[in-house]
Amino acid sequence: MALALFGLWMLLEGRWTVEIVVTGIVLSALIWLFCWKFLDYSPRREWEFIRRLPRAVGYLFWLIGQIFIAGFRTMSRIWSGREVRPHLISFRTALRTDTGRVLLSQSITLTPGTLTVDQRDGRFLVHALDDAFTEGLRDSEMEKRIRRLENNG
């Protein structure tokens, strides 16, 4: 982290003199020390974050694609003139961490046509615009991808 902070300092500064380099080193070290002491920073956590980053970026691009697909499905369902049949579905997830559960909850809500109504102790209650939108919520690809993020890739 200290190297990244120093690199950012030098990038934003634009000109390099001895004073600027020394100031950057001192400030980077002080920020690193503050984070380590008061924000529960550890190099191990940082390494875990870096290891998960490519898979998280991959998940983000996959989710954006799913949002577009669901958006078109929702649009066609509404414009078709057929009656929508709102549906509530409850299911339990195998995700272990709060972060994973929140990510699943928010991903479902971001996907057009579905909304996470409640999420407690691994049990989700999801409202869908039509019962066809509930297909695949139990043991979904979304949950599998988040589980891989939870398991350090």
UniProtKB/TrEMBL annotation:
| Pfam families in UniProt | MNHE (PF01899)
What is the annotated localization of this protein? Answer: Cell membrane
Output the Gene Ontology cellular-component terms. plasma membrane
Q: Which UniProt keywords apply?
A: Cell membrane, Membrane, Transmembrane, Transmembrane helix
Q: Which residues cross the membrane?
A: 20-39, 59-79
Regarding the membrane, this protein is recorded as: Multi-pass membrane protein
User: From the UniProt record, which GO molecular function terms apply?
Assistant: monoatomic cation transmembrane transporter activity
PANTHER family, per this entry? Answer: NA(+)/H(+) ANTIPORTER SUBUNIT E1, NA(+)_H(+) ANTIPORTER SUBUNIT E1
Sequence similarity: Belongs to the CPA3 antiporters (TC 2.A.63) subunit E family.
Name of the protein described by the UniProt record? Monovalent cation/proton antiporter, MnhE/PhaE family
Taxonomy, top ranks, is: Bacteria, environmental samples
